[in-house]
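Dear support,

I submitted the protein below through the web form. The confirmation email said the job was done, but the results page showed an empty box. After a refresh the structure appeared. I'm attaching both so you can tell me whether what I see now is the final result or a partial one.
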Amino acid sequence: MAGTGREFTKVLTYNGSAYSDVTLEAQSPGGTAFSILEATTHFLYLGLDSKFDMAIFDLAVVGELGSTKWEYLKTDTWTEFIPASARFARDPDDSEGTQYGFDKDGVELFPNNLLSDWVTVAISGSTLYWVRVSSPVSVTIAPTVKQIQCRPIAVYVTSKQVFELLQLKNVTNTTDFTTATVPTKATVDEFIHEAQAYIDMNTRKSWRPNIIFEEYQQFNLNGIKLDVPDAYKCLALKIWTGSTWELKAQGRQADYFLVQDTGMIQFARYFLLPARLSSYGATQFGGGEFAMPVKITYLAGKDVNTDMRQGGIIADITKKMAAMEIMRTADFGNTVVSGMDRVSAESKMQQWQEEVADRLDGLRAFEVF
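What the results page shows now:
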């Protein structure tokens, strides 16, 4: 096992009086689509056995809702918070700039630092980390969902894999880090999360879902090469017409399509765009408004569990980086050192550091500036 999957442990709907378990339908793209948030008293619950920072929604029928309300359990109280999707849309020429509203396929983000004191709670018999969403103001059209995926905080490896690398079973008398161990499972997940960021930065690639909001490009009838590698789904492509951003339809029989192998957007239709001309006058400069007339929002990143060439290497690097952080910061009263005394802790860390540096260098993507 390389790392964690993209499926929520539990997905529940609540109609104001009873819960319905739609986990299997949410996990499978070919499952039965299901409606959510059909009334202002309804909720959608998303639960995972570890913390997560992204939910990815694939809709069968887009919704028309009022303002959505997102909540998490802080200590023992459901607490409203503002998710991060609205932080990325800042184009003054577009109507975007609000959080995800189930009006299209899309993503909602829950950065861990925004959910302080997030704790688990038992809902319908499952004790998990939960977030829930409702539309308490109005529901005009209820969304229908095909699939919901998640991005756990720890993706590339699990805390149990780090635990086994450090051979801590005889130290903690458990099979994994827990809420009672030093460090706790939540802390180890944070170490893994930090290692993942370091790996992504150094390799210039990623093995987890990432959303790229509103990437601007020049128009090219021969196709557009996306900036971030390993794009796997385009969520929106808009073209500036001179007065507004016009949303284009995806598909070979529509306006454009994404070729995943090359990361290229190919156009299936010809578009006549206003010419980008420059003219100087006494009081004005014309034509610049047609620079970068395409903006694209998409998902990118490989799956560490299905990448047969590099997934195992990424898991090994992450596991050793998290283990080194534990050995540097956690106090086991020298038990870990004595448990690994065939090779001293210092020697083991130095060896791991060299292996990590060498493997990261081999995985680094080539860039042209």
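Response: this is the final, complete result; the empty box was a page-load delay. Residues 333-340 have pLDDT under 50 and may be disordered.
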